[in-house]
Amino acid sequence: MTGSTPSAAATTTEDRPRRTGRSRLGRGTPTIDEGPRARFGELLPYLFEHSRVLWFIIGLSILGAAASLAQPLLVSQVISIVEAGDPLGTLVWGLIALVVVSGLISGYQHYLLQRTGEGVVLSSRRRLVRSMLHLPVSEFDARRTGDLVSRVGSDTTLLRAVLTQGLVEAVGGAVTFVGALIAMFIIDPVLLGLTVLVIAVSVVTVTLLAARIRVASARAQKKVGDLAASVERAISAVRTIRAAGATEREVRAIDENATGAWRMGVQVAKISALVVPVAGIAMQASFLVVLGVGGFRVASDAITIANLVAFILFLFMMIMPLGQAFGAITATNQALGALGRIQEIIGLPAEDAYDADIARSAAAPKTPASAQAAIEFEDVVFAYARPAVDTEKREGTAAPTPTGDRSVAAVDTAYTAAATDTADDEAGRSRRAPGDPVLRGVSFRAAPGTRTALVGPSGAGKSTVLGLIERFYDPASGVVRIDGVDVRSLPREELRARIGYVEQDAPVLAGTIRENLLLGNPTATDEQCIDVLHAVNLGDVLDRDPAGLDAPVGEDGIMLSGGERQRLAIARALVAAPPILLLDESTSSLDGVNEQKMRLAIDAVAEGRTLIVIAHRLSTVVDSDRIVVLEDGRVVGAGTHSELVESTPLYRELAKHQLLV
Ligand SMILES: Nc1ncnc2c1ncn2[C@@H]1O[C@H](COP(=O)(O)OP(=O)(O)OP(=O)(O)O)[C@@H](O)[C@H]1O
Fold first, then answer.
1. Distances from the Cα of 315 to the Cαs of 92, 205, 265, in angstroms?
2. Residue 24: per-residue pLDDT
3. Ligand 1, closest atom to CA 633?
């Protein structure tokens, strides 16, 4: 699922990748099974990047072709000289030299082709990764991580084959082919006519097979993407899967995808395998025709033996490039299938820097003035798009659900009990149709330098509010402002540089503590890093490992406790010293000790900045300057704790359940 404005949502999500696939990438109408297919023209920019070396290689292969073409002529000369009983002299040495030179040329050419092929893979990976990481956040909602990884890892490698398996060599091959054809025409046009007839049949057959190879290959690559996505899903939730006793089921699901990929691979192999015998039969048939008819023509003195031998050698020379051409067609078709999947991502529009229209029409200054910015929501309506392209995405790759946290369960029970007239619980949320607004006219203001808490039932839209401030999504209507400036008119980089954002789940990256801390501010000193660690009560992690700041945190920060991960994420946001901090408190890790540490951390970071905290337990935010209560996408109350206890039943109920009143 993706988000943006409802109207935009309808066009920017599910349909877009496929629509882009049709208009930019393919002829005809690709089905979801085939996936997008690229046009040959889309391959050319990748080749043009290496045009100098490719011209050099083409030059080499023409040279090699000329050396090969000279060989039958020399052989024919040698036979004539032997027949006449004359001494061979330097002719034999010339022949040997030719063989050696063409061998050397072909070796060097092979190396250059492989190297250039690697270059093409590299540049396609660079372009793809650059585009991928600049896609709007909503695109990632709709796509499976494993499939994206597979495009970078597997699809790109298929582009190499275009070069290594023949496209450039086919140029040299074409020279040999034409040269041989001319020589054969000069030697015996009748024999040539018969040969061409046999070969033409095989060329037509191979051309027909090529179209099927392209379709099968695109399907095979899609299956590889499915496989990668299912492996990613299983690995990312390995603990949950083990705990649920679902390992074998996952293995079977992955196995099904692996079998699907295998089946498609075999289909490609079958079609490609047809190409080989077709080429072989063409060669043998033409050889037999030449031998049989040629024998008669020697007997009737229409052609000499020396010329028949030369003709047969030229025949081989003509057929060899044909084999190369068939290989090139297969490889190119496979590459076009893969390139379709690469270009599908590259062709998607990147996140825009800012909304030019709004920036133009904004009367207010483009840069927020104060160091402690005010945040303002005015009548904001927002809907996520309709269901994602792939439901597996949300079901399968979701982070493991926190279990056994009774305090969180109690919070939601409290909300549910309080919410009598609206449906806010799980059942209520499931009644909201996909594409219905998640925020329905939200308005509130967080004054500069104050602490604002967002509270409300699960699914009320609290995290969505933070997503809109960060401009991961834009509202359908209404405005989000920082210091009076519409956030859409600010360059995203500038906007995000002003905001520290701590997301709810998995906020720690694999790597070391230092790498995590330097993410938002690569120039921070060790001293600054250590200071912020102490500020969020994480000083002790430095003593645990002699590596100190260079201690690894493991994949997703698995070597730290849940509370420590959350506080490390806060520390990371602080290193960049942002004037605004958005903190989506984790629903897990809320035991008493962690909660206390979290409160202290929040106190420490609140100083001198505008802070918006999403709280799942009131105790962490009860002393906030302002608490905004969200319910089903609406603000149902705002004020201090004591004001809300008086004025807002939902809040009062919640406070009662948490023994605060
Ligand atoms: N990326 C997304 N795509 C589609 N729908 C989404 C997306 N993120 C959230 N939603 C839906 O929007 C609604 C509000 O979600 P949100 O995460 O803002 O709620 P929340 O109040 O923060 O909940 P919690 O307290 O459980 O974190 C939910 O119904 C949720 O299913």
1. 22, 20, 34
2. 35
3. 14
For ligand 1, mutation pick of 384, 629, 654 (most atoms within 8 Å of CB): 384
Read off the pLDDT of residues 399-427 as tens digits, 9 standing for 90 and up. 333 333 333 344 444 444 444 333 444 44
> Looking at residues 72-82, what average pLDDT do you find?
81
Which residue's CA lies nearest to atom 24 of ligand 1?
458
Q: Which two tokens stand for residue 179?
A: 């040269």
Fold of 17-346: ABC transporter transmembrane region fold (1.20.1560)
Consecutive H or E run containing 318:
helix 305-346
For helices 406-418 and 649-657, give the axis angle rounded to 10 degrees.
Answer: 150
- pLDDT for position 373: 73
Res 603: pLDDT: 77
**pTM score, two decimals?**
0.70
| Nearest CA owner, ligand 1 atom 29 | 459
- End-to-end C-alpha distance for the chain, whole angstroms: 40
What ranges do the domains of the chain cover? 17-346, 408-462+471-498+618-661
Cα separation, 146 vs 431, whole angstroms: 30
* Calpha distance 417→176 (Å, rounded): 84
pLDDT of residue 218: 80
What residues contact 569, with CB distance under 8 A and at least 6 apart?
502, 503, 507, 508, 516
**H/E run at residue 152:** none
**Ligand 1: which of 137, 454, 464, 472 to mutate, most ligand atoms within 8 Å of CB?**
464
Share of the chain above pLDDT 90, in %: 18
Four-way CATH pick for 408-462+471-498+618-661: 3.40.50.1000, 1.10.240.10, 3.30.1330.200, 3.40.50.300: 3.40.50.300
183-204 tens-digit pLDDT: 889 888 988 888 888 778 777 8
552-558 mean pLDDT? 76
Q: What tokens does 347 get?
A: 């062709």
Instruction: Summarize pLDDT for 134-149 with one digit per residue, the tens.
Output: 999 888 888 888 889 8
Ligand 1 neighbours (beta carbon < 6 A): 1, 3, 141, 384, 429, 438, 456, 458-464, 504
**How far does residue 456's CA lie from ligand 1's centre (Å)?**
12
Q: Is the ipTM of this complex over 0.90?
A: yes
